[in-house]
Input
Amino acid sequence: MKKFRTAVIGAGFIGAVHVETIRRLGNVEIVALCDAMGAEKKAEALGIGQAYDDYRKMIDEVRPDAIHICTPNNTHYDIAKYAIEHGVHFICEKPFTTTVEQARELIALADEHHVQGAVNFHNRLYPIPNQMHQMIAKGELGEIFSVHGEYIQDWLLYETDYSWRLDRSQVGKTRAIADIGSHWMDLAEFVSCMKIKRVNAKFRTVYPVRKRPLGEVETFSHAENAQYQEIPIDTEDEAVVMFEFENGAIGSMLVSMVYAGRKNTTTLAVAGSKEALKWDSEALNDLWIGHRERPNEILTKDASLLDPRAARLGSYPSGHIEGFADAFKNVFRQFYGSLEQPDGDYEFARISDGLREMLLCDAVFESAQKGEWTQVED
Ligand SMILES: NC(=O)c1ccc[n+]([C@@H]2O[C@H](COP(=O)([O-])OP(=O)(O)OC[C@H]3O[C@@H](n4cnc5c(N)ncnc54)[C@H](O)[C@@H]3O)[C@@H](O)[C@H]2O)c1
Output
């Protein structure tokens, strides 16, 4: 197996997950860490030898084979562009960019420089959603009638909750949609094997003004005894979207960052003419299979019971719980595998899928602005 040298940019919540997960691959060494704030301390805490606060300097000096982009959304484009221009492959956190134009430009540039890029839509590579995809691809559900679900969280429930994700200049023009709706829409298209053709969205900003604690707050952390500044909010706390798929199937999604008690819940249900399937991230190793003529079933992740392509995504024997970081491992393993063997059988999201999400997010935004059904550009 080829050995790779990689570097991680951004060591907040998700950067630390990348670091831990890369180390589980066995053939990828983390040679440097870059963070705009406290890089040395973060690198030391994560046991990484070299620390940088400027990704350009890091790429120039370290010359890694690949980088992991784990910084706020508005920085993805510049970092990916610099990597591409220097022949460095990359895994970028979602959303790929903040605009469709940026995504298109990066894809063309990556093509020109023969650089591979991935976007970390990891939900596809959990064993159970992947099993749904394999079953649907084989026609086991018959004609698909509907696709629906939700992605709901409560970390912005109070008006005093704040993070960079509330700042449009850092997150892009949509927030809940780009941040968590993008995950759901990628999963819905991947699992159902169908493209979304049209969308009709309604956004709601529950708190048009929020109280920002003075001083920096890392994502999902809480500031004690903080003093606040009032900040106007111009992105959505929650959204509901209706979908029309290419075969005429209908669908809906609720995304919310203000849903009490739901920490990070994703559900996806697909109903067809023969049977129906449902996945819930709170019991993510189980698949509900609904029948009309016989009792319903629960298929629990077990390599001997899953489709071989879904079974390969399990890290542990049946009965041993696995989850978030294991799905990341699947993405990273496939990505680095693709650098060594481009023709292998991979299902990770590529930068073209990142562009697809930007097109979907744009259509959802436009629909919410106009209050009407909007076509998704191909
Ligand atoms: N795949 C997933 O499920 C998932 C989950 C969470 C976050 N994300 C994505 O990961 C990205 C980061 O989110 P997070 O929650 O980790 O945020 P975070 O605020 O916890 O961490 C961001 C880190 O990036 C650093 N940073 C900011 N600008 C930088 C720059 N120019 N150069 C170097 N470092 C910089 C910050 O100092 C911070 O340490 C976002 O794009 C987010 O959408 C994905």
